[in-house]
């Protein structure tokens, strides 16, 4: 009970694909029409002078190039035959499905980082390569089994795009200043804060392969997440991850503080609502836990894990008809463990 589903029912992905492709174009993918599937390198540059150091511009250029690569990956995925008939009802979600899939399936490698131009108009230049999985069909199949991870990776992609935009908006005043006139000016501190958040986000995504239904090694995850949280205390992904690790370490009160902050920052974060429900269930508050799971289900109605968790909350409250309904719904989405258990116990007719 509570395990991730193993398969998805077959319907259509067309509305979600269309929405994701539209989002790509709106985010600046006009160049993609000129590319072919063989075009796997992406280059971005950012100027550095004044209070903007070369390392700052290089870090932002790398993130921007990665964003371009992921947008291109989304367009490639939208044409994948294996995705055209895969079920999803997440079209109403604020985050398109393909963002998460692209980040899960493709690797991005830095090919070159250097300088271009002549003083005083010099730029940091970063070139990255988009690398598909060796077996795309098998990789897609595995990724679709992790609907929860799709949300986390998708949110990370959206956040990185937003941080690059913040950087580009913050740099013009700093580029025009000099250390003599500005010193550690507010503009430079703002840029450093943005880059700290970028680095923390990268560290978080590097930890995601060790996240299954929960952290494989919660104590190690807690230690790795702590410095990331110091660099980006306003990152709801890191907050929720920390809450999950603390819950596994049997520290539910601390976990609730972090999940409360995560939901304040991102009230549409389905997995955070699910983690909050698990914390409340641990604190023996099943009615409140069921409400939290209900919010998670409203945001991700085809995630069987959230349905199975609410069923567990109903079981504690002895609301057997509601429990059975959720177990049946979870089973229809591929997770039948809870329903089998309930039938064996004679709880569900």
Q: In brief, what are we looking at here?
A:
The protein has 349 residues and is mainly alpha-helical.
Could you please describe the fold and organization of this structure?
- This protein is mostly helical.
- The protein contains 15 helices and three strands.
- The chain has helices at residues 14-26, 54-78, 97-105, 136-144, 147-175, 179-182, 186-207, 218-231, 236-248, 252-265, 270-282, 286-299, 304-316, 320-332, 337-344, and strands at residues 41-47, 107-118, 121-131.
- The protein has a three-stranded antiparallel β-sheet.
- Helix 7 (186-207) runs antiparallel to helix 8 (218-231), helix 8 packs antiparallel against helix 9 and helix 11 (270-282) packs parallel to helix 13.
- The two termini are 18 Å apart.
What's the structural blueprint in terms of helices and strands?
Elements: H1 14-26, E1 41-47, H2 54-78, H3 97-105, E2 107-118, E3 121-131, H4 136-144, H5 147-175, H6 179-182, H7 186-207, H8 218-231, H9 236-248, H10 252-265, H11 270-282, H12 286-299, H13 304-316, H14 320-332, H15 337-344
Antiparallel strand pairs: 1-3, 2-3
The radius of gyration over CA amounts to 22 Å
Low-confidence stretches: 1-38, 87-96
SS-based class: mainly alpha
Shape: globular
Ends apart, CA distance between termini: 18 Å
Oligomerization category of the chains in this entry: single chain
The total of helices stands at 15
Task: Give helix % range.
Answer: 55-70%
Residues in β-strands, percent = 5-15%
- What summary fits the major beta sheet? 3 strands, antiparallel
- Give the integer mean of the pLDDT values: 85
Order of H and E elements: HEHHEEHHHHHHHHHHHH
Query: How many strand elements?
Result: 3
Query: Strands across the major sheet, in which order?
Result: 1-3-2
